[in-house]
Amino acid sequence: MPSIAGGSLQSxxxxxxxxxxxKSQLIHAQAKLQQQDYILAxxxxxxxxxxxxxxEQFDLxxxxxxxxxxxxxxxxxxxxKGIQDGVQVGQTVIDEDGILGQIIxxxxxxxxxxxxxxxxQSVAVTVKRTGQRAIVTGQGIPTSLxxxxxxxxxxxxxxxxxxxxxxxxxxxxGYRVGxxxxxxxxxxxxxxxxxxxxxxxxxxxxxxLVLQDKLVNKNNITLNEx
Length: 226
Fold this sequence. Notes:
By secondary structure, the chain is an alpha+beta fold. The protein contains 2 helices and 12 strands. The chain has 3 domains: 1-51; 58-115 and 204-225, Beta Barrel (Thrombin, subunit H); 122-198, Rod shape-determining protein MreC, domain 2 (Thrombin, subunit H, Beta Barrel), CATH 2.40.10. The protein has helices at 4-50, 214-225, and strands spanning 58-68, 76-79, 92-94, 99-106, 111-115, 122-127, 133-138, 145-148, 161-164, 176-185, 192-198, 207-213. The strands form 2 sheets. A 6-stranded antiparallel β-barrel has the order 1-2-5-4-3-12. A 6-stranded antiparallel β-barrel has the order 6-7-8-11-10-9. It is extended and about 85 Å long.
């Protein structure tokens, strides 16, 4: 007959194997939940983009971000829409929360989008609360912008919303750009140092909307039909 000690060892080994099996099942279940959470989040975000109010003067062309620029110092992404989809250089691109940037290159089936977070990009804005005009400039990172040319005597506050002013005609007016996150007076000059949190999502921007002038699209259709 097997000893009591031997039976106890076998019982412990069986429990250990069962414990390992349960841990493995738990890890697999958690991994699947992570993937499901990601898919649900992406679906919710896509629904938000598709439900964006459609301006009368623009068609909203849904595009997908399929890559980034080879120069990691530039804030540029590649979209899966191009000339055949009516995409043109200079068109503004948004998400459901605000302005992302402008198209700088177009190809038959793809295009390159320069984000407003790029150091060489700027947007004319208006402080929504006061109507004051200023310029928002990229800092080369996806989480922060700067508000430039604002005098120390100006009425700007943390939390103020900034919208595009349309000045210069590059970007249409009325789209969210960001909110003032930090205001600091420097001794060097008469201007304030102002940090802005972007309105748009520059970190997880899988889907975007290209603003296309309806008149331009109609002309493209007419030319294609000919």
